[in-house]
Design goal:
By secondary structure, the chain is an alpha+beta fold. The chain has a domain of 102 residues: 2-Layer Sandwich (Beta Polymerase, domain 2). 22% of the residues lie in helices and 15% in strands. α1 packs across α2.
Length: 188
């Protein structure tokens, strides 16, 4: 991982000054062109989250770095401070667990392709010798010959059974269908 820039150190110190917890610094330059570094920090409440984000923006401004923007500062549980090459996410614990940004962005950089790596000579595996036991040779099994169709016994015919009527479970009575009454015929 490359050495963090001066702006990363400024943002990290600003978070530490106001007791931001669980600060993670991620190098994401190989994953996106939007930013090079991400800082993720946990705040204890919405007011703490907002204070942490404001402190990062103010400290960066004092050091000569102009913040490009801040999102979610109006009472949210997640505030983002965009400093250009550094993006700072300040979140409450519940939001951080839910969104799992570390899992999303903390991916190892791609390794060299296989053809670029020097090849090692593969060692051939040694086969274990099978012990030979003296005695009878094993008899080979031959499949049994099939009888012609005429010589086979005829198949028995089984009468089809009618399905049994469903019985109600013990302790339950079967629901009866209501009888439909016909209206009496009108006389003329």
């Amino acid at each position: 991982m490359p050495k963090p820039t001066k702006l990363v150190q400024i943002a990290k110190n600003a978070l530490e000054d106001l007791k931001g917890s669980d600060i993670k610094v991620l190098d994401v330059a190989h994953l996106t062109t939007v930013t090079d570094w991400m800082l993720i920090c946990t705040g204890t409440s919405t007011r703490h989250v907002k204070s942490l984000a404001d402190n990062v923006a103010d400290t960066a401004r004092e050091a000569g770095f102009r913040p490009l923007g801040t999102e979610g500062a109006d009472g949210s549980d997640w505030v983002l401070v965009d400093l250009g090459s550094v993006v700072v996410h300040v979140m409450q614990a519940q939001a951080r667990i839910h969104y799992q940004l570390e899992k999303l962005w903390d991916i190892a950089p791609p390794e060299e392709p296989e053809e670029a790596k020097p090849k090692k000579a593969a060692a051939k595996p040694k086969l274990a010798a099978t012990p030979k036991t003296p005695g009878k040779p094993k008899a080979s099994k031959k499949p049994a010959a099939k009888k012609p169709a005429a010589a086979r016994a005829p198949a028995k015919k089984v009468a089809a059974k009618k399905p049994a009527a469903k019985k109600p479970a013990p302790g339950k009575t079967a629901a009866k269908k209501p009888a439909v009454k016909k209206a009496p015929a009108k006389k003329k």
